Amino acid sequence: MVEEGAYWLAWAQISGIGPVLLRRLQQHFGTLATAWNATKVQLGEVEGLGFQTLEKVVQQRSRLHPEQLFTKHQQENSHFWTPADADYPRLLLETPSPPPILYYRGEVELQENLGQKPMVGIVGTRQPSEYGIRWTRQISTALAKNGFTVVSGMAEGIDTESHIAAMKAGGRTIAVLGTGVDVIYPHKNRDLYKQILTAGLVVSEYPTKTPPDRTHFPRRNRIIAGLSRAILVMEAPLKSGALITATYANEFGRDVYALPGRLDDYPSQGCLKLLSQGASFILKELDELLTMLGAIPQIDAIEASTAPEQLMPTLLPELQTVMDAIASEALPFDFIVQQTGMAAGSVSSALLQLELMGFVSQLPGMRYQKN
Asked: Does residue 333 surpass a pLDDT of 90?
């Protein structure tokens, strides 16, 4: 029997089928194996699959053999997860566009993948000021010493400073690349890359030997946001990839924090814009920031002996809204989104938290029911 992971890989090879459509196919058919064997008419019922894309699916699907493709891919890329794997990062899986294949190198820590160890993304400009560097080092150090894993993109500037500071403090860090996991970019970070492999993880949605491409880096920012419980923007001008990461974070229901700067400082203009749009301030008192990050709904497993009704009054409003929309019988994800009126990313995040709290169970086909 062909594993479900092979179908994630096979579907990803079809032009016009991206992460969002893959998620819709899975939700509609329950499994991508079922979707693979669906007729053209059945596939046409999926939102976003237009006539031209359907034609590509029919033509290309006949030439692909999932099991053979999967075996060959394993030989060329020894370490990767698909959403069918139990070790696939849970927080990332709950976003609307999880990568169908996530490649990795380094030291895997399953608590991170299961969402039981908090991960915080730190992003910012490639040309930070001394002020931005100083605060990035201080905050990354504080996070690492308090048990947070620091996630960033291994770019020059803020990314590099956050990785280095976290490791110097004895913590873990994850670098999300816009290249294959075996391609170091920028090349000057080759020593940093080697250090991360021993004190954390390097991940990418691109297969080995993929060179840098300007279109890859904005896309990889959604993975930084998806892996993290919160995003900290340290310094960013108005045209900055860090703002793209913050946008994804908002879509996924993550908290966004920004480091305030002077009104006439170019590297701070993006942060000031985020603050004007409702992002939380990163203030001098780091204990306050750590407290706020610690107050983000935990998705650590709660003791099974704890009665759900005892915990219901303590649920945050958005969790309670989602909980109220779920019945004892299984309901599809899209229906729950409609019932709550919340963004899909926020509902996904809430469902994951409720599931790990023991209040909700996920069934095949992205259906949920109360326990």
From this structure: no
230 SS3 class: strand
Radius of gyration of the chain (CA): 21
- Three-state DSSP state, 176: strand
Query: The pTM is what?
Result: 0.79
Give exposure, 37-67, as e/b (b: 16+ Cβ within 10 Å).
ebeeeebeebeebeeebbeebeebbeeeebe
CA angle centred on 236, ends 230 and 240, rounded to 5°:
95
Q: How far apart are the first and last CA of the chain?
A: 31
Q: Which of 67-76, 134-143, 148-157, 294-303 has the lowest mean pLDDT?
A: 294-303
| CA–CA distance, 93 with 1 (Å, rounded to integer) | 24
Residue with tokens 């709904």: 297
Q: How far apart are CA 259 and CA 105, in angstroms?
A: 31
Q: Counting beta carbons within 10 angstroms of the beta carbon of residue 275, is it exposed (0 to 12), middle (13 to 18) or buried (19 or more)?
A: buried
* Helix (H/G/I), strand (E/B), else coil: 368: strand
The per-residue DSSP string of 235-297 comes to S--SS-HHHHHHHHHHHTT-EEEE----TT-GGGHHHHHHHHTTPEE--S-HHHHHHHHHTSP
* Distance (Å, whole) CA 90 – CA 336: 19
Can you name the residues that pair with 202 across neighbouring β-strands? 105, 175
Burial class (CB in 10 A: 0-12, 13-18, 19+), 226: buried
Per-residue pLDDT, averaged over 329-336, amounts to 80
